[in-house]
Amino acid sequence: MNMRSIENRLLLKGRKNKKTIITILLALVTVTGLAQEIKMNETTINDYIPMLNQKGYQAYSFDASTIKGRNL
């Protein structure tokens, strides 16, 4: 065996190790991403009032329980 063939074998071995490491890291990142869960928070009027106030709007609430069931 000459020196050049030994160098080529070591170089190929290093490339295989690099590919293996990258593949394992990619698999770990994928599994970690799939394990996470995104929860949606329900929004209420209280979430919107500060934004409306910043834009110059005044939000008012009214009790409409007394007219419930009436045709307006």
Description:
By secondary structure, the protein is an all-alpha fold. It has 2 helices and no strands. The longest helix has 33 residues, at 3-35. The protein is rod-shaped and about 95 Å long. The mean pLDDT is 77.
Write the layout of secondary structure elements.
Elements: H1 3-35, H2 45-54
Biggest sheet layout: none
Q: Count of DSSP helices?
A: 2
| CA radius of gyration | 32 Å
Compressed to H and E, one letter per element, the order equals HH
Number of strands: 0
Using the alpha-carbon principal axes, give the shape: rod-shaped
Spatial separation of the terminal alpha carbons: 97 Å
Task: Compose a concise summary of this entry.
The chain has about 70 residues and is mostly helical.
List the keywords:
72 residues
